Amino acid sequence: MIVLGLLAACSATPPAEQTIRDHYFYGGLAAFHEDMHAEAARQWQRAAELGDGEAARNLGHLYRQGLGVEADGHIAAAWYQVAADAGVISADYNLGMLYMRGGPGLPPDPDEGLKRLGKAAQAGFPPAKAELERLAAAPAPPVATPAPTVAETAPAPPPAPAPPAVSEPSPLRMQIGSYRTRAAAEQEWKRLRLKGLTPEIIANRVEGKGLWYRLVAVGPAQAVEAFCASAQAKGMSCWSRTR
After folding, report:
1. In what residue span(s) does the SPOR domain sit (predicted)?
2. Which is it for the CA torsion 187, 189, 193, 198, positive or negative?
3. Which residues pair with 202 in a beta bridge?
4. What is the dotted CATH code of the domain comprising 16-136+167-241?
């Protein structure tokens, strides 16, 4: 039998500024999951301006996809950079993918993209490591070269660099959805049966919508990314947080 409820508070009361940041961050999540994208952008921008790096990363998502704001690759990159500077590992991955593929008004920059992916992989972010491995395994495009003369010899290729060591990723917190009642959130957790993750249900008041209950899954990055991959395959978004 799964016992649901808030995780026990084992630490001291957080400072008031962090409480305010969390209010805006989770208010943005609740708004996003209700398809109130403009409201999510407003809440996350307020949290980011108060120093919340993960809110800045989520703003990057919105500007990259044009959800609730006008799509703009340059603004998306700027918010991802703010998040990366704040120590959000996944933001380096998002920035790397944005540079690899380009975005609205932002041309691709593969060199910068590989640099960012390498930084995220070295910090222990599994999707970045997987992307680098995929790129390394992809066949290189053929390059036409003139036939060597008798005096020319083909130099031996340099040895491949050793892959960077990666450390264990930090646990993640991922919002699954927001619900009108606690019972609905509990029922959703029982339905999903997510292995390796612990549930957390948090009451949150959304402006103009009243009291909602957020269902958050807490656990190792591998379990969170596995769920995210499944969700994205179904056209759903996945939003995680390291604390």
Report:
1. 166-243
2. negative
3. 214
4. 1.25.40.10
pLDDT mean over 31-43: 92
Task: Answer with the residue of higher pLDDT: 184 or 10.
Answer: 184
| Extents of the domains making up the chain | 16-136+167-241
Pick the closest to residue 216 from 184, 180, 177, 163 (CA basis): 177
Helical segments of the chain, H only: 16-33, 37-49, 53-65, 73-85, 89-101, 110-122, 126-137, 182-192, 221-233
Question: 242 versus 98: which is more confidently predicted?
Answer: 98
Give the whole-number percent of the chain exceeding pLDDT 70. Answer: 71
Q: Quote the pTM value.
A: 0.58
Nearest residue to 2 via CA among 199, 240, 236, 233? 199
Q: Which residues contact 40 (CB under 8 A, 6 or more apart)?
A: 28, 29, 31, 32, 58, 62, 67, 68
Sign of the alpha-carbon torsion through 139, 144, 149, 150: positive
Distance (Å, whole) CA 84 – CA 241 = 13
At residue 232 the predicted structure's pLDDT band, cuts being 50, 70 and 90, is: low
Tokens standing for residue 216: 């958050």
Q: Can you name the residues that pair with 191 across neighbouring β-strands? A: none
8 A C-beta contact, residue 44 and residue 24: yes
The amino acid at residue 4 is: L
- Report the C-alpha gap between 84 and 79 in whole angstroms: 9
Tell me the pLDDT band of 211, cut-offs 50, 70 and 90: confident
